[in-house]
Amino acid sequence: MDLTKYAHLEDEQRFVLPSLPEGSHAPRMIADRYVLGTRLRVRTLTDEAADVTIAKLGHKVRRESSHPSAVWHTTIYLDDAEHDILGALPARVLAKRRWTVAGGCADEFLGHLEGLILFEGPRPVVAPGPAVEVTDDERFTGGALAGLDADGAIALVAEARRLVA
Predict the structure, then answer these.
(1) d(CA 134, CA 158)
(2) In the chain, which end has fewer C-beta atoms inside a 10 angstrom radius, N or C?
(3) DSSP-derived pairing of the beta strands 117-122 and 52-64
(4) How many other C-beta atoms lie within 10 A of the C-beta of residue 159?
């Protein structure tokens, strides 16, 4: 079975930042629900300034197991009924505020991951200001972040803050 038939290749670099970059603008709220036992993610993206909410189902398949940043990504936009049904499935949740930045985006994580700021952009990308690359560090992928318990999240944020200090 060809898992890439309807997908596009996404290969992004990821960096830990000490703070939001200057010039960050137009934040959007993102709630990701990683459906347990699957490679599916239900994303709700809210642009409060435009009073718009978009829901979509994402499916990611890694191109290589040792390279977590390169994935075949398929997206399906959902209507309200589909979103409600899929949103009821058991999932790990990740909440963040996404800021538009030259060359990519900066994600400011919320909840137990508060204090963690990741910048990502299509390869090759230059991080805005001081940063530490974590592109191939599995711990900084969305699914792994969503799977952390409170203690694990707090420890990872502390480690990330030390990296960029």
Answers:
(1) 15
(2) N
(3) unpaired
(4) 12
Residue 42 parent element (H or E): strand 40-47
Domains of the chain: 8-163 (2.40.320.10)
Q: Between β-strands 8-17 and 117-122, what pairing exists: parallel, antiparallel or unpaired?
A: antiparallel
Q: Which of 7, 60, 58 is nearest to 31 (CA)?
A: 58
> Does residue 41 contact residue 33 with C-beta atoms inside 8 Å?
yes
49/3 Cα distance (integer angstroms): 36
Identify whether the C-beta of residue 28 lies closer than 8 Å to the C-beta of residue 106: no
pLDDT on residue 26: 81
CB 87 within 8 A of CB 32: no
The whole model's pTM is what?
A: 0.93
Q: Are 39 and 61 in contact (CB under 8 A)?
A: yes
Instruction: Give the ranges where the chain is alpha helix by DSSP (H).
Output: 80-87, 142-146, 150-163
Residues with Cβ within 8 Å of residue 138, at least 6 apart in sequence: 68, 144
How confident is the model over 81-109, as pLDDT tens digits? 999 999 999 999 999 999 999 999 999 99
| Beta carbons within 8 Å of 37's beta carbon, 6+ residues apart | none
Q: In a 3-state reduction of DSSP, which class is residue 87?
A: helix
Cα(40)–Cα(37) distance, integer angstroms: 9
